[in-house]
Amino acid sequence: MAVTMVNRLGFRPLSTSTIPPHFLSSAPHTALLTRPTPFPTFSSSGTCFSVSCNLQSTKAFVVPRRSVMALILSSCIFSQIEGNIALAQQSVVFREYIDTFDGYSFNYPKNWIQVRGANADIFFRDPLILDENLSVEVSSPSSSKYQSVEDLGPPEVAGKAVLRQYLTEFMSTRLGVRRESSILSTSSRIADDGKMYYQIEVNIKSYANNNELAVMPQDRVARKEWDRRYLSVLGVENNQLYELRLQVPEDVFVEEENDIRKVMDSFRVNKISV
Predict the structure, then answer these.
(1) From the centroid of its chain, how far is CA 231?
(2) DSSP string over 48-115
(3) pLDDT tens digits, residue range 128-173?
């Protein structure tokens, strides 16, 4: 008996003598789609629901069932991965820290922890990236009589003083230690409280010899220990100078710049109530 194939493109009908034998076999791993077949699909949330695929009747289109199921399962897996990535990219949640005794406030990432005993008025640190932290320094009320942050001079002059202070703090007695530093930016802004603030950004790199006790110079190879960005916000109130300090590794800063700048912009100095 001759078998006539469905032909929508104008080709001459085929006979059984021209059809490969495996197209006529009823092997269990293939299926001829001759009627609408329901296939399960998956939503982006991972929930399974079913729809009917209206496939037109044909005897020339053979689809392996395993390939169809593999495609469906892979779509579900990729949808779940996309959902997890979107969740991970949610913005950072901030908390507000208010010091009514010393007169300042700022926002900080909710997951950061406060460290006691640090040589600062307040100190917070990222529990996962220990080199990422913030602190606040306040000048002594008895030895400072600041009227405005402009008492420090223009932002460029204040930036040089801030950099010198950082380098002094990072001085090391180890042999072969070298520091490279640069001022990245200096600026001033008027915040919503009507006060002027200076913002200073510097970069400091530290290099050290891999064998500081080696006699021959070729055996003392300098390698980079760390590369960090230091950001300071300066403000004056209560005749005192306030400085918010942020320390961030340069590679981390590239990823978290927006959040770091939100912390900087949130810093305020407040009048102390007597």
Answers:
(1) 18
(2) EEEEEE-PPP-SS-EEEHHHHHHHHHHHHHHHHHHHHHHHHTSPPPEEEEEETTTTEEEEEETT-EE-
(3) 999 999 999 999 988 889 999 999 999 999 999 999 999 999 988 7
Distance CA 211, CA 274 (A): 57
> What global pTM score does this model have?
0.65
Kindly list the domain boundaries of the chain, sorted by start residue. 21-88, 94-269
104 near 242, Cβ under 8 Å? yes
Q: Which listed CATH number (3.40.50.410, 3.40.50.150, 3.40.1000.10, 3.40.50.2000) goes with 94-269? A: 3.40.1000.10
Which secondary structure element, helix H or strand E, spans residue 134, and what is its range? strand 133-138
In the chain, DSSP finds a helix count (H) and a strand count (E) of 4, 14
